[in-house]
Amino acid sequence: MNPFLLVIILGIVEGITEFLPVSSTGHMILVEKFIDSPYVSKAFMDNFLIIVQFGAIISVILYFWKDIHPFVKSKEIFKERMSLWSKIIVGVLPAGVIGLLADDYITRVFLGNTFIVALMLIFYGIILYFIEDKIKKVRKINSIGEISYKVAFIIGFFQCLAMIPGTSRSGATIIGALLLGLSKGTAAEFSFFLAIPTMMGATLLKLMKSGFSFTSLEWELLAVGFIISFIVAYLVIKWFMEYIKTRTFKLFGIYRIVLGILVLILLNL
Question: What is the pTM of this model?
Answer without folding.
Answer: 0.85
